[in-house]
From TrEMBL:
The keyword Cytoplasm does not apply. This is Zinc transport system ATP-binding protein. It comes from Micromonospora inositola. The keyword Transport applies. Residues 228-245 have a biased composition (Basic and acidic residues). One of its GO terms (molecular function) is ATP binding. PROSITE patterns: ABC_TRANSPORTER_2.
Length: 253
């Protein structure tokens, strides 16, 4: 059996005392691609922030690579792509600089970039199809290309686990395909993925398991729900996860 990469046991999270997640348990093993699905505001981002220790648990526990999260120090084993940078973040950095920043945790800020760093940055840019944009300011890229830049930054750190918050939301078809290709390469190298998604699109065949969050709890953990009803056309791949005990219709996401 593959090693456990993420284990969440009976976790509860709240903001300012308001509960958002309650009694959530989740296991991700090496080589899996687990998609977290659910309606807006159901707590998907909160769940992955809790896995990363970016929000504290009010109950339960998180284990990363077999270590209790509060004692875990090997953060370079994890690449994180947060939800989209707001438009006009004002960052004048070039694509190459942003991707190179993904090497910092590996090389230490004070050591100059070496050949391995440069090669990792070049490989990550090729993986997302942006090698020809290396010198361009990030602000001049489309939203989808900016998202690919953030994915390349995470890949450049050569992580074992990628955690992605809606990597394809509002991203054009070309960027979605580029992302699916990059993910395939990452998986072929033995990587593990936890991602939040609304539309699976070209990612669908890569997903090994879906976890559906509803009203702060996990109501489904298993096969990827099929697109339903009039959304079933091939070009419309919204996911409509249902839970047995819930009436249909509550689930549109
Ligand atoms: N930093 C915060 N402070 C206070 N409340 C928050 C914070 N972040 C999220 N929330 C609230 O927690 C709930 C869950 O939010 P979360 O972002 O986890 O949902 P989500 O499922 O990822 O939603 P979406 O699909 O819209 O991204 C929402 O009601 C949200 O308003």
């Amino acid at each position: 059996m593959n090693a456990t990469v993420i284990q969440v046991d009976h976790a509860a999270v709240g903001y300012d005392g308001r509960p958002v997640l309650r009694d959530v348990s989740l296991t991700v093993t090496a080589g899996e691609v687990v998609a977290v699905l659910g309606a807006n505001g159901s707590g998907k981002s909160t769940l992955i922030r809790a896995v990363l220790g970016l929000v504290p648990l009010s109950a339960g526990s998180v284990t990363l690579f077999g270590a209790p999260q509060r004692r875990f120090r090997q953060w370079r084993r994890i690449g994180y792509v947060p939800q989209r940078l707001g438009a006009g973040s004002g960052v004048p950095a070039t694509v190459g600089e942003v991707v190179a920043s993904g090497r910092l945790a590996r090389r230490g800020v004070l050591r100059p970039a070496g050949r391995a760093d440069r090669e990792a940055v070049a490989a990550a840019l090729r993986a997302v199809g942006l090698a020809d944009r290396v010198g361009d300011p990030v602000a001049t890229l489309s939203g989808g290309q900016q998202q690919r830049t953030l994915i390349a930054r995470a890949l450049a750190g050569e992580p074992e686990l990628l955690i992605l918050d809606e990597p394809t939301a509002g991203v054009d078809a070309e960027s979605q395909e580029a992302f699916a290709r990059a993910l395939r390469g990452f998986l072929a190298g033995g990587g593990t993925v936890l991602l939040v998604a609304h539309e699976l699109g070209p990612l669908r065949p890569l997903i090994s398991r879906a976890v559906v969050v509803h009203e702060g709890g996990v109501c489904h953990d298993g096969a990827v729900p099929e697109p339903a009803g009039h959304h079933a056309e091939p070009d419309h791949d919204h996911v409509h996860p249902h839970c047995d005990e819930e009436p249909a219709g509550l689930w549109s996401i």
